[in-house]
Amino acid sequence: MPSCMNIWFILMVSIPMIISLTNPRGESERSSGALHSVSSWVSPDDEASLEYDFYRDTCPQAEVIVRSSMARIYSKHKDVPAALLRLFFHDCFILGCDASILLDDSNGDKNRSIERQAVPNKSLKGFDKIDLIKEELEEACPGVVSCADIVSVATRDGIVLAGGPFYPVLTGRRDSTSSYYQEALAGIPRPDNDITQTLHLFSLRGFDERETVSLLGGHSIGKIGCDIIQKRISDFNGTGQPDPSISPDLLKEMRQKCQGGNQTTSHPPPSPLTSLEMNESAVGLSYFQTLSSSMSSGVGFDTHYYRSLLRGRGLLFSDQQLMNEEKTASLVMAYASDDGSTFRMDFARSLMKMSSLSVLTGTQGLVRRNCSLAS
């Protein structure tokens, strides 16, 4: 258990971010057909907000349980941080961090589509890992810790295990009883988005260019499946030709890896934040692999993603598009030029902001005992 001095230090470091991030919103402000800016999801009359160590009285061991569970899972599945990062992003990006992505039914209405069924979400992994952590928490503190808090805390702990930065995660989120299929279809960024489309979708959630470029650095970990980049290397925009922006040496590597032996997979296109496979042996490429021959670092979570973009070696079209706009390109160069501390600081700050997007708190929503079910 951290000492009082450690807790005080964390609070003092994070207060400037915390003040600007605890902006919950009312359930009534959700819209089923339109995307809104973050400000339209926030209600000034919300009864409660996120807190540091929210479960200190009701389940004081909650975060210890999440951390120890993640350590056990990570020891067997080194790819779980990337999978949970993507799961977290897909949840928070669509009407806030409310665990709606985890729902596997629609309040008994089998004719209503759910978020999991939206094309960008069909390749999501890690649901079973969240369920494992939830089972341990239910045994220790029945009906207390929300699925939304589990996703946020487990993602942070996974990032740390993968060599990424630590950042404080406020807790007290409640779980949604609804799923948002249409919003997921329209709102999740695509790997073939151009820079204008990507920046627009992130700006709708309140993220500026710097925050967007830092968040896309999540591609530092994980593997991009060949099915995601297949059209880019063989039939870009229906031309029957590869994307002309791919550097010749990278195109050769992509073809060798993804067309040798006619390797194919059946997953639909995911989002560009972390289009990653849970299976470590999945056919694909990582940004670390594409630069490994020129790198001295053995750490996966560093600035190799940005260095790849500087050399025209972005695996996703949407990633390489960061070099097509002056401000985002300058940010890529800035992140690639130092020891990684600037990227790590900005990435941590942006993830903390994302973890507080449009949360349900107080009497809003509920605490689901089973993360797949709405009640």
TrEMBL record:
Domain Plant heme peroxidase family profile, first and last residues per copy: 49-375
Catalytic activity from the UniProt record: 2 a phenolic donor + H2O2 = 2 a phenolic radical donor + 2 H2O
Keyword entries, A-Z: Calcium, Disulfide bond, Glycoprotein, Heme, Hydrogen peroxide, Iron, Metal-binding, Oxidoreductase, Peroxidase, Secreted, Signal
A GO BP entry: hydrogen peroxide catabolic process
Positions contributing to Ca(2+) 1 binding: D91, G96, D98, S100, E115
GO molecular function: heme binding; lactoperoxidase activity; metal ion binding; peroxidase activity
Family annotation (Pfam families): peroxidase (PF00141)
GO CC annotations on file: extracellular region; plant-type cell wall
Top-rank taxon, per record: Eukaryota
EC number: 1.11.1.7
Free-text remark on how the cofactor is bound: Binds 1 heme b (iron(II)-protoporphyrin IX) group per subunit.
CDD domains cross-referenced by the UniProt entry: secretory_peroxidase (cd00693)
Residues annotated to bind heme b: H219
Signal peptide residue numbers: 1-20
Cofactor: heme b; Ca(2+)
Entry binding sites for Ca(2+) 2: D302
Site (Transition state stabilizer): R86
SUPFAM superfamilies (alphabetical): Heme-dependent peroxidases (SSF48113)
Protein task: Removal of H(2)O(2), oxidation of toxic reductants, biosynthesis and degradation of lignin, suberization, auxin catabolism, response to environmental stresses such as wounding, pathogen attack and oxidative stress. These functions might be dependent on each isozyme/isoform in each plant tissue.
Family membership: Belongs to the peroxidase family. Classical plant (class III) peroxidase subfamily.
Protein name: Peroxidase
Organism this protein belongs to: Juglans regia (English walnut)
Gene name linked to the record: LOC108983137
